[in-house]
Structures are given as C-alpha cells and as structure tokens.
Amino acid sequence: DIVKRDDNLQPEGEFQRRPDQKWAPGERADMVKRDDNLRPEGDFQKRPDAKWAPGERAAVAKHPDNLQPEGEFQRRPDQRWAPGERADMVKRDDNLHPEGEFYKRPDQKWAPGERAPIHKHADNLQPEGDFQRRADPKWTPGER
After folding, report:
1. Which comes out higher in pLDDT, residue 144 or 13?
2. 112 Cα distance to chain centroid
3. 3-state secondary structure of 46
4. What is the Cα–Cα distance from 36 to 84, expressed in whole angstroms?
5. Taking the CA atoms of the chain, what radius of gyration do you get in angstroms?
6. What are the two backbone dihedrals, phi and then psi, of residue 18, each rounded to the nearest 5 degrees?
7. Measured between alpha carbons, how far is 34 from 32 in angstroms, rounded to an integer?
8. In degrees, to the nearest 5, what angle opens at C-alpha 102 toward C-alphas 99 and 105?
9. CA gap 100, 106 in Å, rounded
10. Per-residue pLDDT tens for 76-103?
C-alpha cells in the first residue's frame, strides 16, 4: 500500500514563458563586387596550327652474324592422306543357348467389360393443374 501525504507547496503567480515570435526570412547582406585592375594588353598569342608529319626515326642497324648452315637439312618425306586401316571385326562364340521353349502370353481378343444392368425406376411425380405460360405477344414490325 502506497501512502501519499499532503504538502503545502502551491505555485504562486504566473509562469514566465518565452514570448511568441512570428517567422520572418533572414536578412541577407548585399553582394559586393570589387573592381580589379587586370586588363588584357596587346594581342593574344595562339598556338600555331601544326600539320601532321611522321616522327623522326633512327635507321635500322642489321648486324652480320657468323652462323652458317653446314650439310643438308633432313626433311620429312611427303605423304599423301589415306584413310586409316581398320582392324577386322572378330565375333567370339559363347556357350549360352536357350533350353526349351519360351513362355508367351496367350493371344487375347478385345471384348467389352462386364457391366451391371441398367435399372430405371418409375417416379411418382405427376403434374397437377395447368402450367402458367407467358402470353404470346402479337408480332408487329419494329420502329425505325
């Protein structure tokens, strides 16, 4: 059980609040552009138009060597293409022979399956009274 005792502390006077302020856009400083003392003097110099020319290249130096072939070279003899030779097929005999006769399924002709006879029961529903029909409207040509 919580026991709360009374106290004698009461607020006196009014609370002070921050005064309400209305929104307004911020103030911007004016832009200041300073003058400069830089001025172009004389004519501008442009890069001269250069035409393409091949680059300068050093002359190719071919040094002589002291390697000389001695004797004749041996070459592979010329061969013409021919299909490969194939080994003869050898069929070995085996000692497996069937003994007796094979069992075969007897030949059967198609016949319809057996069905139970159809029973039609007589019903006891009979119409009573006259049927109500829609009145036949007389034919008339449609409107144009």
Report:
1. 13
2. 55
3. coil
4. 95
5. 61
6. -70, 135
7. 6
8. 165
9. 18
10. 888 888 888 999 999 999 988 888 888 8
